[in-house]
């Protein structure tokens, strides 16, 4: 169900020939209302794809009727022609749905620099075809249509007090969001104003997708959208809704991590006792982006020296010679020296836990990352993506 | 010859049993004078090895008698015992050379966290043994003794106007300097004051080792030292000396790049027409640290979209939609869109050239990096280093 689990939404996913495999590649999600509230956050990469540039305008008034998504081409760095493709996609959807093109979000994913006449024709045809097939049962196909190197679709449903949140996501590489990440569509039938939707979404993405750093590479096409139908007629308790939305985003972020390209370990880096949450994030991210650390985890090697060498490059407040590092429950480093023997650490499970105690305050953060593997190198060198 | 090419220097390299292979692992370089001038730059990583902490004190007065270097153990995060090991190493060398321990630089390289009683005993014995074998012919053995995962020693000799510069270096991984990098010893018989030596060395390292970013991982043990004997009796032209020292450092940096762990491409990223040199460096480094770009080059894929996605994460001054990207002489991207077909780019040679024209000013910088390969993952996951 995912995005159609809340009342007031229909969806579809169709094969428009953008993927050479013939798999579904265009998805549409439509909000039937009564509310047509939308919020979205976008990649902070200055190199932005045309659909991002378009959607940033659409979201300004907080009104969204529908979202059109395609895989098989990022429509990024495709010039004026590419922007026109996005514009025409919104126009075509608006015409068929009898709404304004200015209320249609567009997302694309695939190879940067691809977006020619053939691409445009296929996206437009796919949009028409998907809109003709819209239904409450279309969520599954929609979540499959946005997949690129993903090996499986990512979906979530969270039930609140007489309201529901649904969501779908795609992403397996170039997975290191700045402000948002990847393509994610969230829906709810709770009653929210545009301002509430925006605030809840920003909070939820900040502590979920923004804490996922699989490979240090920030995408040009990231977009997380929340569509609000209000069809339940229920105004949720703000804290309860925010918590449910955050949990839904974390669940999707963990699905993205678990399906990261070539990864053999899902690494949860917990930074504790930092002077600030920002410090905790900076420290965790420095480890998540350290190729030597990531390669060591692939080799089941609890090489804590690489953790300290990574965090020493940050300007976070802590004494490098008074930091504790735990790996899978074993304290391998304390007070500037080795602690338990590295042989005690079992890194064979996929789930890997690194705890860094900075002893500098009471803030904390969790960063999710993956290891650096032969399969990652293979997937990202063997063909363009 | 390398470090003993200038007059006034002797060196030695011996096997002290620190390397399991039985290869040489302790080196000593001694300045016979008449000047005993020294300058050094160190890693900017806050996680610093004990020899770095020690040597930062030694260099304060600009006087250096000798430098002791070992491979087979980084003596980093080894606590008070480890610092005492470095101190004792300097004391032992000072005693045998009849000089002050406060004028002995110490460098170590190897696994972080290793530096126990056995390590100390071997380093001290190796220091004694090396000092007993000092000679003008010892430079070759010294350059071999500091190797870790290096497949070959790195040496340079530059002849000036009646003065000479010599140098040796080691480094193959954790190769992304902050202020200096790796272990490098430079020698000269030119006449220089401590202030001149320091200024020349800082200039030379800033545009050589500091522009090398093989794997984004900054070491805890980096140290570049310049020992000045003045034995030629010649005071060099400052510009001429600075140029020669810079060229010598670039030659060593290129040798380090060419021997980077597992690399199959030496990538020279030239950033042109930047608003400032800092901007050019930031832009070049963002590409050098992008795993997707590096994996693409390994796969001989001129994936310029990954270049733009990387530079878009920086705050350098440029318009992302008006940047030209050239790969091995072919302009693959211009004005926010594709240019020449990617098929025209031949990435099979090891030497790879990426030119990024920011069209934002007249500053430029060159960053040296390597690709991300299966061999890199293998070398850094199969065993601790």
Automatic annotation (TrEMBL), chains A, B:
Feature type site, description Involved in the stabilization of negative charge on the oxyanion by the formation of the oxyanion hole: 109-110
Active site: residue positions: 181
Gene3D superfamilies assigned: ArgJ beta chain, C-terminal domain, L-amino peptidase D-ALA esterase/amidase
Catalytic reaction annotation: N(2)-acetyl-L-ornithine + L-glutamate = N-acetyl-L-glutamate + L-ornithine; L-glutamate + acetyl-CoA = N-acetyl-L-glutamate + CoA + H(+)
One Pfam family in the UniProt entry: ArgJ
GO MF terms, alphabetically ordered: L-glutamate N-acetyltransferase activity; L-glutamate N-acetyltransferase activity, acting on acetyl-L-ornithine as donor
Top-rank taxon, per record: Bacteria
EC number from the UniProt entry: 2.3.1.35, 2.3.1.1
Site positions for Cleavage: 180-181
Keywords for this protein: Acyltransferase, Amino-acid biosynthesis, Arginine biosynthesis, Autocatalytic cleavage, Cytoplasm, Multifunctional enzyme, Transferase
Top EC group: transferase
Gene Ontology CC, one term: cytoplasm
A GO BP annotation: L-arginine biosynthetic process
InterPro entries to which the protein is assigned, alphabetical: Arg_biosynth_ArgJ (IPR002813), ArgJ-like_dom_sf (IPR016117), ArgJ_beta_C (IPR042195)
Functional pathway: Amino-acid biosynthesis; L-arginine biosynthesis; L-ornithine and N-acetyl-L-glutamate from L-glutamate and N(2)-acetyl-L-ornithine (cyclic): step 1/1; Amino-acid biosynthesis; L-arginine biosynthesis; N(2)-acetyl-L-ornithine from L-glutamate: step 1/4
Subcellular location: Cytoplasm
Summary of subunit composition and partner proteins: Heterotetramer of two alpha and two beta chains.
Function: Catalyzes two activities which are involved in the cyclic version of arginine biosynthesis: the synthesis of N-acetylglutamate from glutamate and acetyl-CoA as the acetyl donor, and of ornithine by transacetylation between N(2)-acetylornithine and glutamate.
Similarity field: Belongs to the ArgJ family.
Protein name according to UniProt: Arginine biosynthesis bifunctional protein ArgJ
Organism: Microbacterium ulmi
Name of the gene this protein is made from: argJ
